[in-house]
Specification:
Blueprint: H1 2-42, E1 45-49, E2 54-58, H2 62-70, H3 73-103, H4 110-123, H5 126-135, H6 140-144, H7 148-156, H8 162-178, H9 180-190, H10 195-203, H11 208-219, H12 221-236, H13 242-247, H14 252-287
Antiparallel strand pairs: 1-2
Helix pairs in contact: 1-14, 3-8, 3-9, 3-12, 4-9, 9-12, 12-14
């Protein structure tokens, strides 16, 4: 009897879990799964929109060969943006980690500062996102609406270091814009570290630097990996991404092939990021054992 009750309890828990995830699964299949598979189907066809129907002419790998071998459109857009992503991803993650550590301290007004750093996430939704993109979100064009760009031109003039200063400020704005969610994730991760670990380290005479490398950083390792993945996906899929703008032009078959090629590039890049992070994490663990 007890065994039957255990099986019944397990079955009920599985049924409850299935019911909870069922809306997500149904929504994924209907709104993401089917469109993804259909775009893969279209990538092998020339799509013609006729008055009464949509015609699909099978062309095989024509669009894939054209994009990879014969067309420079993808590379002209992807390579400059890829260079920016390689530069910005570690900067955003490191910046978010440092800010989250500061915001996790018992400082006066820390809740206000948390809200300020999270504001870009709120602004990047819905109609507000479209408005910021149209204004030139993340560049000096956006700042010029608040006359900061004019003040910079007046202050810097035509000096040789005017352009580098503007570039640094531009990237600083981008870091602030993209780091809101990462800071929130790091703050959640810092809350999981027991205060007794820090108290024991202070009693043993550990310096703040040693505490960071031997307690904080190892405990934040899963959250660092999560933020790396999130930041890469966020930057590669942001609406103002030039490659995504390229996908929205041309015929449906060509666009679908371009989108799938771009998808596999992102997957490969994510795999490299995870591999490099795993190697560095293992070396760090060996050095501080």
């Amino acid at each position: 009897m007890s065994r039957k009750r255990v099986l019944t309890a397990r079955s009920l828990r599985r049924l409850e879990g299935t019911l909870f995830i069922a809306p997500w699964v149904i929504g994924f299949i209907a709104f993401l799964g089917f469109p993804l598979l259909f775009s893969l189907y279209m990538s092998f066809h020339t799509v013609k929109i006729l008055p009464n129907k949509v015609a699909y002419d099978f062309v095989g790998l024509k669009f894939y060969r054209e994009i990879i071998l014969n067309s420079s459109a993808l590379y002209d857009k992807l390579i400059p943006y890829f260079q920016e992503v390689v530069l910005m991803v570690p900067v955003i993650v490191i910046f978010a980690l440092m800010i989250s550590i500061l915001l996790n301290q018992k400082l006066y007004g820390r809740f206000l500062f948390r809200a300020i750093f999270f504001l870009p996430v709120i602004f990047s939704t819905g109609a507000v996102l479209l408005q910021f993109i149209n204004q030139g979100e993340g560049n000096l064009g956006f700042l010029e609406r608040f006359e900061l760009g004019g003040y910079l031109d007046t202050f810097l003039g035509d000096s040789s270091w005017a352009k580098p200063v503007k570039e640094v400020l531009n990237h600083f704005v981008l870091v602030l814009w993209y780091s809101g969610v990462q800071i929130l994730i790091f703050l959640a991760g810092l809350q999981t570290i027991s205060t007794s670990a820090y108290e024991s380290a202070r009693i043993d005479g550990a310096t703040p630097w040693e505490v960071f490398w031997k307690i904080t950083l190892p405990a934040m390792s899963p959250f660092i990996l999560l933020n790396l993945i999130y930041t890469v996906v966020d930057m590669f899929t942001f609406p103002s991404n030039p490659v995504i703008e390229l996908v929205n032009t041309g015929n449906y078959g060509f666009n679908s092939a371009l989108a799938w090629i771009y998808f596999f590039i992102i997957i490969i890049f994510l795999g490299l990021v995870i591999l490099i992070y795993s190697i560095m994490n293992r070396r760090h663990a060996k050095n501080y054992v």
